[in-house]
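Below is how a single chain appears once it has passed through the pipeline. First comes the sequence as given, then the structure the pipeline wrote out for it. We keep one example in the README because the format questions we get most often are answered faster by looking than by reading.
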Amino acid sequence: MRIDKLLWQLRVTKTRGLAQALVLQGHVRRNGARVLRASQDVVQGDTLTLPLPGGVRVIELLALPARRGPPAEAQACYRALDPNAIPAIAPAEPTTPGRGPPQ
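Resulting structure:
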């Protein structure tokens, strides 16, 4: 199955066009390697690293979806390998009490 279609069917993106853009920008990794084409095939057992607005997600494909169904059906097709998702942007450096941010 094409990776752009998979991301859309798993409800990672709202449209297939957004999935294609995410892949073509070079942000998606399959088994640790950067995905360069939206038409690249994925198979059951692959590990995908996806940068999402809420943080970076790492998922393992348990099954390939047959359709874009309800969210519960989509979530049954993968397993999150990072239950506490890593933030996409590093948090700001903590400031010590009584000191403001550097000037």
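The beta strands are 29-30, 33-34, 47-52, 55-61, 78-80.

See the next section for the split statistics.
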